[in-house]
Amino acid sequence: MRTFNLPDLGEGLSEAEIVNWHVSEGDRVVADQPLVSVETDKAVVEVPSPFTGTVVALKARPGDIIEIGKAIAEFDDAGVHEDKGTVVGSVPEQEATVAAELTHEAPSHATVRAIPAVRALARKLGVDLVGVDGTGAGGAITAEDVRRYAGAMSDAGPPQPLHGVRRSMAQKMEQSHAEIVPASIYDEADVECWIDSGDITVRMIRAIVAGCTVSPILNAWYNGKEKSVRVIKKIDVGMAINTGDGLFVAVMRDVASRDDADLRRGLNNLKAAVQARQIPLEEMRGATITLSNFGVSGAGRFANLVIVPPQVAIVGAGTIRPQVVANKGQPAIHRTLPLSLTFDHRAITGIEAANFLKAMITALEERG
């Protein structure tokens, strides 16, 4: 009997969700045959069988969230093909190093301030004290706090565990909040001269290239443990793409070397692959800077955006609206594009960020 443990899936990930099994108990399989599909890091990945043999037990069901290294299947009369902890895909060394640093323990009940009687009441009412705001002396949780929380929860539905895309997003946001020191600056670009015939997203990518040319340090990865920053030569832009399942970030590679038509084809291909849930995992890794075009929703002009480590910057494009501007000394109504730049202040200075944004605006205001 041999046990197959969920292998390392790359990027320092700690868990994956079982999507579906491609085999059943009692099936005879061969090494490298697709065994199970799992979802992690916003992509569905097929995990191959490490053995040739008979499946005698499947130890997880679709929807289960399994930690890396935990048993998921057992084989009988398994062949000599050895499971060496296969890594699905590869991860840049810097990304793997930073991702490995970003593991955090959940809050402990021992840190909650509450007397035994209040804890007993919480157990009776099914209240997790970690989520209760204490109003007593020094932040202690009172019996009334517990009853208020229990009453609020009674009006809500049952807790729904996050799965797939939303679970991955929650983990990355927690990492960002714990690790990054964010700062944001905002401005607007007058785009009246080309907005009726230009491709907004392509122009935004071109503007990011201009910004990185002036301030290359914004196209970088930061290692918090080593206190080091690695500037990346190629500009690989993470494109935030919204779907009914949640937010995906696919990567446009080496955008500085591509013409406008190639960029548009690449964007269309990425969006189609994301919507079909067929985007390869490698196309969602290794971004050096991210663009969030949240203005396409029709609401929102500026935002404090969230940087995903090890990146150090994210650019946001808000909703384009007509504004009164000065045009050759006279007031005029032009459409303007709101821009938000959030940067990691551990690695980036305010002047570096300002120069980046200024270069973006100059590029966006050019005719044609």
Give structural notes.
This protein is of the alpha+beta class. It contains seven helices and 17 strands. The protein has helices at residues 93-101, 116-125, 143-154, 164-179, 200-214, 260-275, 350-364; strands spanning 2-5, 15-21, 28-29, 34-40, 43-48, 53-58, 65-67, 71-76, 182-190, 220-223, 228-231, 237-243, 246-252, 289-292, 313-317, 321-327, 330-344. The strands form four sheets. Strands 9, 12, 13, 14, 15, 16 and 17 form a seven-stranded mixed β-sheet that branches. β4 (34-40) and β5 (43-48) form a beta hairpin. α2 (116-125) runs parallel beside α3 and α5 crosses α7 (350-364). It is globular, with a radius of gyration of 25 Å. Mean pLDDT is 85; it is low at 80-110.
Beta-strand percentage range: 25-35%
Q: How many whole angstroms does the radius of gyration measure?
A: 25 Å
Helical content class = 25-40%
**What would the principal axes of the Cα set say about the shape?**
globular
Question: Structural class, from helix and strand content?
Answer: alpha+beta
List SSEs in N-to-C order: EEEEEEEEHHHHEHEEEEHEEEEH
- Number of helical elements: 7
Low-confidence stretches: 80-110
Distance between the termini: 67 Å
Largest sheet: 7 strands, mixed
Tell how many strands the DSSP assignment holds: 17
* Average pLDDT for all residues: 85
Would you summarize the structure shown here?
The chain has 368 residues and is of the alpha+beta class. Helices cover 25% and strands 28% of the residues. It is globular, with a radius of gyration of 25 Å.
